[in-house]
Amino acid sequence: MLVKRILVWTTKVHELIAITQSESLNAPLDRDTFERFRAEITCRATSMLEEHREDAELLGVIAQYRQLAAALKESLETIPFPEEATVSQDDVIGGVFKAVLGGASVERQIKKRVDSLLSRYENWWRSHRAQITQDLGNLQSALIDRL
């Protein structure tokens, strides 16, 4: 029964990552609020991680559990602030001047910001995906060995 509980929990880890990516893009666009969001999501993950720590110890998979916990926590602590979505008064005035003076159109400026934001999120996830996937696989394999 412990094995099954932790295997179900690993699915929740996947859900948490997906929710975090979505929520981070929908978080308010000022840095202070985003930092509170990031701290809250990391705290939520830490609580979730503690939920089955004792089960992992009883099953002898605590090393794999801790490895996954560390990778997950590190990824959440480094999720990027969507600064490209923040528009200041200077950005608006500068954008109008550029458009009037024959510079980049507003559409091109927006596309550049969106492309940059998507690229940073893609790079963030790429830098963490392999480790999290490997650690999840290692934990799941160790659990299956306990069946």
List key phrases describing it.
mainly alpha, elongated, 147 residues
Account of the protein in words:
- By secondary structure, the protein is mainly alpha-helical.
- Helices cover 82% and strands 0% of the residues.
- The chain contains six helices and no strands.
- The chain is elongated, with a radius of gyration of 20 Å.
- The mean pLDDT is 82.
Structural class based on helices, strands and sheet pairing: mainly alpha
Determine the oligomeric state from the structure: single chain
* Spatial shape: elongated
Total strand count, please?
0
Q: What are the secondary-structure elements, in order, as H or E?
A: HHHHHH
Q: Kindly estimate the percentage of residues that lie in beta strands according to DSSP.
A: under 5%
Q: Calculate the terminal CA-CA distance, rounded to whole Å.
A: 9 Å
The low-confidence parts are none
Write a brief caption for the model.
The chain contains six helices and no strands.
Topology, element by element:
Layout (H helix, E strand, L loop, with lengths): L1 H25 L4 H20 L2 H7 L2 H16 L11 H12 L5 H40 L2
Helix pairs in contact: 1-2, 1-6, 2-4, 4-6
